[in-house]
Amino acid sequence: MGWTDEQLDAIRSEGNVIVSAAAGSGKTAVLTERVCRLISEENVRVEELLVLTFTRATAAEMKNRIRSRLVETAQSSGPERDRLYAAAAAVGQASISTIDAFCAGIVRRHAHTLSLSPAMRILDEGDLAEWRERALRDVFLRGSPDTELGLLYDRIGGTNSVRNAILRLNGFLDSLPDPDRWLETSLSRYASPEGRGSYMNAAAAAAGDRLRELTRALENERNRIDPCFEGVLARLDDELSACRGALLQKEYAPFREALLPLRSRFARLSFRNKGLKKEFDPDEAERIKAARNALKDGIDSLTEEFRHTPEEEYAAMDRSAQVLCALANVTTAFRAAFSELKRKNNAMDYPDLGRFSLKILEDERIAEEYRNRYRFIAVDEYQDTNRLNDAIITRFSRGNNLF
Fold it and tell me: Of 42, 30, 40, which Cα lies nearest the Cα of 74?
C-alpha cells in the first residue's frame, strides 16, 4: 500500500501520537501498519500490545488485518520469517478488544481487591432497559407533589420529560471518573455568589475565545491589504480596535459592557479609493467581506447571549438552582435504586466495569503490573472515548506509548 507523508509520520513517530483525519482516510490502516512495524522492526511481542476498540466487530477486524499483514511481511522477511509467522499465530490471543471487555478482564482478575464476586453478570441492553425502568418506578412511587420530584413535574413537564432528564443526566454521570464529585462541584456554582460569579466569568471567557477567533480571521485579511487603500484600512482598524478592547475584559459585567456597543461600530465599508488608479482586488474584497460578516454575525449572536444584566443572570441562576438541585437529588436516588438492583443480582453494567477498573488501578502495584505488560497502547476512534475511559488508560500508560 502506498502511504502519504503524513501517514508515514504517524506510522513511524515515537512517543504519544494523535491521528486526526476524516472518515475513510485510512486511520485504521495506519494503526494496523504501526502495530505490525513495532512487531517486525522493533521486536515488540504480540502480548506487549494493547489495542482498544469500541465494537467487537472492529476488534475482530483489527485482529484479521494485523494477522494478514504479519503473514504478508513474513513471506519476504528471510531470517525473521519464523518469528513473524509465530506472531501472526499469536494475534488471536492478543489484547485486542473493546474497552468494556478489557475493563471486564481487570475486574474479574482483581475482584477480590474490592470484595467483588468474579462471577458477576454483565447486563445486556435488554436487561439494562428493564432494570432502569424498575429503578425509575421506585423513584416515581416515592415522589409526591410536595417533593423535589413534584418540583420537576412543575418546571420540566410530565413523567416522560422528567424521566428523560433523569436518564440523560445519569448517562453523562456514567461517563465520568468521579460523578459524585462532579455533581457537587457543579451545584456549588449555583449555591454562592462566588460560585455564580465564577460560572458567569467562565461564560465570558468562552465568549471571548469565540470573538478572538473571528477577530483574528479579519485581522489576517486586513494585513494583506495594500497600504495605499487607507480608507479601507482605517475602517477595519477602528472595528478591530473595538473588538480588541472587548477582549481585554475577563469578567462578565465589563465584557458585556464592551460587547453591547460593538455592533454599532461596523459602518458601511467601501472598497473605492478616490484619487487612486489602482482598484481593489475583487477576490480579496470578497474574502474581507466574508470574514467581516462572520465577525458581525458572531457579535450579534454574543450580544443576544449577553443581553441580561449580571443581576438578571443571578436571579435566573437562583431559580435554576432549585430545579438543578432537585434533578441532581432525584437522579442520585435513581442511581442508588439501580445500583441496589445490580448488587442484589450480582450484576454490573459497562459504566460499573469502568469505575471498578479505575478503582482497582488506583492500587499502584496493579497499575504497574499493566504498565510493565503493555509497551504500546493504541485506541481506535479515540475521539469517542469519554473521561472515564481516558482516566483508565492514563492510569497505566507509560506517558509516551499512546497511539
Answer: 40
Query: How far apart (Å, rounded) are the C-alpha atoms in residues 266 and 238?
Result: 9
Distance CA 36, CA 338 (A): 44
Q: From CA 365, how far away is CA 104, in angstroms rounded?
A: 19
Which residue bears the cell 513474513?
Answer: 74
Over the stretch 329-348, which tens digit does the pLDDT of each residue have?
999 999 999 999 999 999 99
Distances (CA, A) of 30 to 9, 91, 117, 264: 10, 18, 40, 51
Residue with cell 503490573: 369
- pTM for the predicted model, two decimal places: 0.76
Q: Are 343 and 194 in contact (CB under 8 A)?
A: no
CB atoms within 10 A of CB 15: 10
Contact 152, 146 (CB under 8 A): no
* Rounded-to-integer distance, Cα 141 and Cα 155, Å: 19
Residues of 209-244 as b/e, b for ≥16 C-beta within 10 angstroms? Answer: eebeebbebbbebbeebeeebeebeebbeebbebbe
Contact 235, 267 (CB under 8 A): yes
**14 contact partners, CB below 8 Å, separation of at least 6:** 400
Q: Which residue has the cell 488508560?
A: 393
Cβ within 8 Å of residue 290, ≥6 positions away: none
Say what the alpha-carbon torsion angle 227, 210, 195, 303 is, to the nearest 10 degrees: 80
| Residue of 84, 83, 283, 311 whose CA lies nearest to 193 | 311
Q: Which three cell numbers stand for residue 81?
A: 520469517
List the beta bridge partners of residue 95: 50
Which domains, from first to last, does the chain contain? 5-116+352-396 (3.40.50.300), 127-175+314-345 (no CATH), 215-305 (no CATH)
Question: DSSP character for 402?
Answer: B
Residue pair 392/354 in contact (Cβ under 8 Å)? The answer is yes
What are the pLDDT digits (tens) for 15-60? Answer: 888 888 777 778 888 999 999 999 988 989 999 999 999 899 999 9
Amino acid of residue 180: D
DSSP symbol at 24: T
